[in-house]
Amino acid sequence: MLCQSSRHTDALKLFDQMTDQSGHFPNARFLSFLAGSCANAGFLDAAAALLSKAPQFGCCVEAYAYNKLMNSFIGCGRVQDAVALFEGWIQGGAYSPDVWSFNVAIKGVCQVGDVQKALELVERMAEFGCSPDTVTNNILVGGLCRVKEVSRGREVLRRLQRDGVCMPNVVTYTSVISGYCKSGRMEDAMAVYNDMIGCGTTPNAVTYNVLINGYGKAGNMGSAVAVYQQMILRRCPPDVVTFSTLIDGYCRCGQLDDAMRTWTEMSQYQIQPNAHTFSIIILSFCKQNRSAEALRFLKELNMRTDIAPRAFICNPVIDVLCKGGKVDEANLILMEMEGKGCRPDKYTYTILIIGHCMKGRISEAITFFNKMVDTGCSPDSITVNSFIGCLLKAGMPSEVDRIMKIASGSTSSSQEVPSPVSQSIDISVAV
């Protein structure tokens, strides 16, 4: 009842009274419930202490309870604690681990890049009558590839193919393919892909997307399109990631017409672009100084109710407008952002501050700087140094002193009385 009322501290005190003072020991089912309830409430250490006492209470708690708690530790970023508990539990005979137990521990150490520990844990499985399953091998191969040991990952893949006991699946192959793609080794990636096809394993959308992305980043859009065509021929439906990746590849190569053709092709599959797709195309138009097209896509994004505007999408548009001297239009973008609940970041403010300075609208630049500080967005050295340079050119040394004090943290913008210079300048933009 105390646990159900979220009074876990009281529940644990009562539990200690029950076991230490009255000598009443729990059974396995109750101990598992109490540990699980504590873990769900965030009392991970208390839950671990309870399960560690199982042998003392004469309980044989199922492996599920230990595995779930380990997973909770790993989910909170406490991988080393989870592994230490796991090894302590099995050494002390608290429970008999199963394959899932090892998979949880191996996944945790792989997440932090400790593949050597992962390999050691795989070796220890036999001590407890466990054999690596497909999940174990997929975790191990994925971990090796993430730390750029793709060759070792492929060795595991080949061993699985050779032994024939636990055959690799699409996840195993895709992990190795992804590792090679990230290293720019596209020939090796395609060799594994062809091997996959030859072994009768059907690639999925993730497999094709990884290959398309690899070729796109390598600037080889011909091969990227060839992979896409294979995807269609093998009746694997493309998704928004497929089209976003193709668009990104074309944009990297400066082929915006092909990117736009792919954007249109998306609608034929009734696939809607997501925030990432919009950010790719908007940034590319901004890089080519085509602000009208960038604004058109930003307006289309703002009309979508299922996508919240993000500062990193709007910043390139604000930047290209400011560089073109269109600061009033840039201000409107900011107002639309804030109207939709999108908070400007330090890059937004820096762009607007410098943009207004370049246009000679120093008072508005000062207002933006003050707003930046007041909203808790700390200016970095680039913002401060650029702004100071503009203020010095404008002959405003008193403002420079004020900005430097704010940047050093010795004062805030709200504590300072505006300088006579900034008071005398008409601020034409409401922010």
TrEMBL record:
Gene3D superfamilies: Tetratricopeptide repeat domain. Keywords: Repeat, Transit peptide. It comes from the Eukaryota. Coiled coil: none annotated. Residues 409-431 are annotated as: Disordered. PPR repeats lie at residues 98-132, 133-167, 169-203, 204-238, 239-273, 310-344, 345-379. Residues 409-424 have a biased composition (Low complexity). The keyword S-adenosyl-L-methionine does not apply. This is Pentacotripeptide-repeat region of PRORP domain-containing protein. It comes from Brachypodium distachyon (Purple false brome). The lineage of its organism: Eukaryota, Viridiplantae, Streptophyta, Embryophyta, Tracheophyta.
